[in-house]
Specification:
Elements (H helix, E strand, L loop, with lengths): L6 H12 L3 H14 L7 H18 L21 E5 L6 H8 L17 E7 L2 E7 L12 H6 L3 E7 L4 H16 L3 E4 L12 E10 L7 H7 L5 E3 L8 H11 L2 E7 L6 E9 L4 H8 L3 H4 E7 L7 E3 L9 E7 L1
Parallel strand pairs: 1-3, 1-4, 4-6, 5-6, 6-7, 8-12
Antiparallel strand pairs: 2-3, 8-9, 10-11, 10-12
Length: 328
């Protein structure tokens, strides 16, 4: 039976995805539960929403405080997106994290040197993006909490040793895909909204081949490109690192929006980062929620027909747009 999701439910779901803290997520989930059509086609989705609400309430009330040690299955999200580095032992994940961020992981020649999740901040131009180095994943052994981090990531960088043969690399990718699917996680080229997504989590994926300094990896790239887009890198001679930064930004499906005051130059130092498809009103809401009720009109530089055009609140923004908010 089709879900026939309402506009109010879809709006609440977008609010849930944009929420940064537990309180906002809980409010959005309760809106989702209130607005979802009640019939057989949405039974599983309703149950999943109720489960998430219960879990967030438990976390908010501190009922899980009896757990000892650090919380390994959650890393506080920072920047424009949370990107996990996933791969088999000795694939070069930690070396990539060290080359791209300010983090200092343990880099060793022996397998399983990464035992805890380690975050670091990478910059693409003026946008900070969080990278999280995860312990290795293989059929032989994987940490149970690792799957939760992958499930909640905005992007997965499947990191592989480019010195291996193409067939071995393809087999490794298929093995990891199967391991994730056992935990209801599906790696995809680009995330699409589906009725199934409340049960199976789609996570966009890019393959990153390390050891790009060792020679031509064209045959490996050709073999793996049928699965996911491939980026060749080397932390040693820094091959492909700029391409990887750009590839991550593009894969996150976000845009940068800058603001300006009337009669003043635009603030081009620190943009607001919104999902692709965001409107002018979404940007106003991100600048300050209270501005929505006081909004008089918006001018846009970039995606308008001309610079400084007054646009409706439903105007779709593009990357690097500048907005000028006028309030009553």
């Amino acid at each position: 039976m089709p879900a026939n999701l309402t506009a109010d439910f879809l709006k609440a779901r977008n609010e849930f995805r944009a929420a940064k803290d537990r309180h906002d997520k809980l409010v959005a989930l309760e809106k989702m539960l209130a607005t979802i059509p009640k019939h057989k086609g949405t039974d599983h989705m309703q149950a999943d929403i109720k489960r998430r609400i219960a879990k967030l309430k438990e976390e908010t009330q501190g009922k899980s405080s009896h757990r000892k040690g650090p919380q390994l299955d959650h890393i506080e999200r920072e920047g424009a997106g949370q990107v996990v580095l996933l791969g088999p032992p000795n694939s070069g994940k930690s070396s990539l994290l060290a080359a791209l961020t300010n983090a200092h992981p343990e880099v060793a020649e022996y397998p399983y040197s990464t035992v805890l999740p380690l975050p670091g901040m990478m910059r693409f131009e003026d946008v900070p993006i969080q990278l999280v180095d995860l312990p290795p994943m293989s059929a032989e052994y994987s940490e149970s909490w690792l799957y939760s981090l992958v499930r909640h990531a905005d992007l997965c960088l499947l990191t592989l040793d480019g010195s291996l043969q193409a067939e071995e690399l393809a087999n490794t990718v298929e093995e990891i895909i199967l391991l994730l699917e056992e935990h209801h996680i599906r790696l995809v080229r680009r995330k699409e909204i589906t009725e199934e997504e409340m049960r199976v989590r789609d996570v966009p994926c890019r393959i990153v081949l390390t050891r790009g300094d060792l020679g031509d990896l064209a045959s490996r790239v050709e073999e793996l490109s049928d699965l996911f887009p491939v980026i060749v890198t080397s932390p040693i001679d820094r091959t492909g690192l700029d391409a990887l930064r750009e590839g991550v930004f593009v894969a996150l499906d976000v845009i940068r929006v800058y603001t300006k005051l009337p009669g003043k130059p635009a603030d081009m130092v620190e943009p607001y980062v919104l999902p692709v498809g965001s409107t002018a009103l979404d940007a106003v809401r991100m600048v300050h929620r209270d501005f929505v009720d006081r909004l008089k009109y918006i001018r846009v530089w970039g995606s308008g027909r001309f610079d400084g055009q007054q646009v409706p609140s439903t105007h779709l923004l593009a990357d690097r747009d500048i907005i000028e908010i006028h309030l009553s």
